[in-house]
Write a structure and sequence with these properties.
heterodimer; A: mainly alpha; 3 helices; 0% strand; B: Amino acid/polyamine transporter I
């Protein structure tokens, strides 16, 4: 059971990092910080769609990561 | 303020006007006139006044029957309870965040206009350092909000009405160019008319301040409905004539000359007008950012008191007694969106939040008539159920048309709002789901979404990912699949 908890905690942490990275990328895309829209060569008409996908992905990753970290700490 | 002091009808009207007349008129008319609708913006203002009146009838009935602190939050709670009231509170908070951020942007814009009269080089400096100025403004107002500084509503209302009256009186000497203010009967023209109405709608919603102040008003059953009706009519008339004059003196081709109202004031009243309106814009925006912070902290505090949000948001400052954590939390959001400087996006976002709240208030009226038919109602909305139904339909119409029109600002605002609403829903479930089985089901659902997203990402990586991103996308997909499986397996076992 202990190994399982460690795996849950590590996976949870990785997912939290992915979720936060997605959130940062969303903000950067939205405000075109460091001209990321040009860097990724995004067509402006698809920008809202990409933003929506990133927001949802980020949200679910963070939520799922929280559940796994709770499990890793022994709280289910 | 004396806790026992109660206000009469005239004070209630001032309270409503104080909430509604603000920075919005200095900014929202620009995009509406130059980009969306042209002179038909004026009839859109009238249309907004009618929609506002419909919903204010519902507000009147509800505030007279339930004259308690909380406004929309209280009505939806009485009608539907839990989740819907949480949504109403959150949407109201969101609209206030976007409105406060927009006010911060307007502050810099009007500061630029003011200096354009004296020193264009300083105006350039101001506009080039807009983000720094917005940060400075929010930080100063944050400290003032924590200290609990109150503003003088009566003075603000009197000053604004005086400025608008001078503006209208002086326009009598100016030959106005007559324009066609009625939208053409074509589909495209009507769509743009509705999109404009949605965009300028925040000019009216501040009137809710009157409902929030319901417990302070004498004889609420009579005074609140009367004040709401009179405020709506007065506001619509003032906005109509101010916009009529502005559109009459500023041609649509003068798009780069500056904010519509400032340019019109400058043409009619010369430099004095430019300075007067710039000062009014600065004053209104500063006041609105401060009010937005206080309103947001009050909403967060109320939701925290009911257990929807962490209790820390209720913490009072040891010296000033204000909810400083809630104020700081709200200020951060205002700061974040304010520094974006995206005026059109913020205008739509503030409007969408308010329109959704209006729809929920109308729904609450219908629900309460069915659920509590014997509730003491000193005022009843006339033509029930047509009035609340018309309010709901109009709100949904205004919400959807700018997106159907493919206005990129509206699309971004709607998507951002949906993202924030998704966060609100997850927060609600994480805070409020007490039963073990429901929590496990939520975990299975989140796990399922992550599993699906991970698998899709790996498949997409095969098709669209450039070589440099391929391994990264596969790794992210794998982590999502593993996490999803772990959430599903653990929770499914425990549900059984």
């Amino acid at each position: 059971m202990k190994i399982r908890k460690v795996i849950a905690a590590v996976t949870g942490l990785a997912q939290e990092a992915i979720g936060l990275l997605s959130a940062v990328l969303t903000v950067m895309l939205f405000f075109d910080l460091l001209e990321v829209q040009t860097v990724f060569n995004l067509p402006p008409e698809f920008l809202p769609l990409y933003l929506l996908i990133l927001v949802l992905f980020s949200l679910f990753s963070i939520a799922s990561g929280v559940f796994l970290i709770r499990e890793g700490r022994g709280r289910t | 303020m004396d806790a026992e002091k109660k206000y009469g009808l005239s004070s209630a009207i001032i309270m409503g006007l104080g909430g509604a007349i603000g920075f919005e008129i200095f900014v929202l008319l620009n995009y509406a006139y130059f980009d969306l609708a042209g002179p038909t913006m004026i009839s859109a203002l009238l249309f907004c006044g009618i929609i506002n009146l419909l919903t204010m009838l519902s507000y009147s009935e509800l505030s007279a029957a339930l004259p308690e602190v909380g406004g929309e939050y209280t009505y939806t709670k009485a009608a539907f309870g839990g989740f819907i009231s949480f949504m109403a509170g959150s949407l109201r908070w969101l609209a206030s965040v976007f409105g406060g951020a927009l006010a911060a942007v307007v502050f810099v814009e009007q500061l630029g206009v003011l200096f354009s009269v004296f020193a264009p080089s300083i105006q350039y400096l101001i506009l080039a350092n807009a983000s720094i100025l917005i940060v400075g403004l929010v930080v100063i107002l944050l400290f003032l909000a924590i200290r609990g500084v109150e503003e003088a509503t009566t003075f603000i209302v009197a000053a604004f009405l005086a400025i608008f009256i001078i503006f209208l009186a002086m326009s009598l000497n100016y030959s106005l160019t007559p324009r066609n203010i009625v939208p053409a009967a074509s589909g495209g023209s009507l769509m743009r008319f509705f999109a404009t109405s949605a965009y300028i709608f925040p000019m009216f919603v501040g009137m809710r301040a009157l409902v929030a102040g319901a417990p302070k008003i004498k004889n609420p059953g009579r005074n609140i409905p009367a004040a709401l009706m009179l405020t709506t009519v007065l506001l619509t008339v003032v906005y109509f004539f101010v916009a009529f004059v502005a559109v009459g003196v500023v041609d649509i081709t003068e798009v780069g000359a500056g904010p519509l109202l400032n340019v019109a004031a400058s043409k009619i009243m010369g430099d004095v007008g430019a300075i007067l309106f710039a000062f009014a814009g600065i004053f209104a925006s500063v006041s609105s950012v401060g009010t937005a912070m206080t309103v947001q902290s009050s909403i967060l505090g109320g939701m925290s008191r009911d257990g929807y949000l962490p209790k820390a948001l209720l913490s009072a400052h040891r010296r000033f007694g204000t909810r400083y954590i809630a104020i700081i939390a709200s200020s951060l959001f205002v700061l974040f969106f304010g520094t974006s400087g995206a005026v059109e996006f913020l205008g739509y976002a503030a409007s969408f939040g308010s329109l959704l709240v209006f729809a929920l208030v109308n729904l609450s009226l219908i629900q309460l008539r069915r659920k509590m038919p014997r509730l003491d109602r000193p005022f009843k909305a006339p033509f029930y159920p047509l009035t609340p139904l018309a309010g709901i339909i109009m709100s949904v119409l205004l919400l959807s048309i700018p997106v159907v029109l493919r206005d990129v600002n509206a699309e971004s605002a709607l998507l951002s709002s949906l993202g924030m609403v998704a966060i609100v829903i997850v927060t609600y479930y994480l805070r409020m789901v007490k039963r073990e089985v429901d929590f496990k089901r939520l975990r299975v659902a989140v796990g399922g979404v992550c599993f699906g997203a991970g698998a899709t990402l790996i498949l997409l990586a095969q098709v669209i990912a450039p070589p440099s991103l391929f391994i990264f996308m596969v790794l992210v997909g794998l982590v999502s699949i593993i996490a999803g499986l772990m959430n599903i397996i653990v929770s499914t076992r425990k549900i059984d």
